[in-house]
Amino acid sequence: MRKNLPSTAFTFAFVLIAVSVLQAQQSVAPPPMPAGNGPSIEKTMQFIQENAAEGKLAYTATVNDASQQGVEWSNRFTVEMSNLVADPAACRITYHWRAEENGKLVDDADYTLILKDVKEIVVLTQDQNQNQVDNRNGHPDWNSRISPPIFVLIAKRPKGMVNVFLFSDESMANRVAKAITHAVELCGGGQDAF
Length: 194
Description:
Blueprint: H1 7-25, H2 41-51, E1 56-65, E2 72-87, E3 92-101, E4 104-114, E5 120-125, H3 126-136, E6 142-147, E7 151-156, E8 162-167, H4 170-186
Antiparallel strand pairs: 1-2, 1-6, 2-3, 3-4, 5-7, 7-8
Helix pairs in contact: 2-4
């Protein structure tokens, strides 16, 4: 035969279960990386802050349309990344992005990269990047050549979202990519939860 619990005992048991469920649902910060696995988050973010925003870059994209013999055009781009702040406590990078195409303003906004959301970091030439973008936008016959050479670091996030950093030097693009990858690991990102 089952005994009835007194109402205070029942209430206490209910509260204990509710608190346990709430605690289980709270997000928990990832454990710190063990010593010896690279620079601290502070040193890594300092490197990113000092090197990820190259300032103003100008380049020309010359596009050849393979579906129409002899059809070619050029667009001149000026891109500037400024006010970059790599915040180790918040595990995020914020910056201002300004872009012009043929002298016309096409983007002038602030952006944020939450490092724990990053799934992949890649470095490509801007030629490769532009050709991939054109292909996704239904122009597989377009082939872009970028002059002078520009290198793009792409931080890929869920749902096709990306943050882009441009560099004139491939070596620096790869060094910053390595630093951002390390920061992502330190901040608990870079992988799916399951």
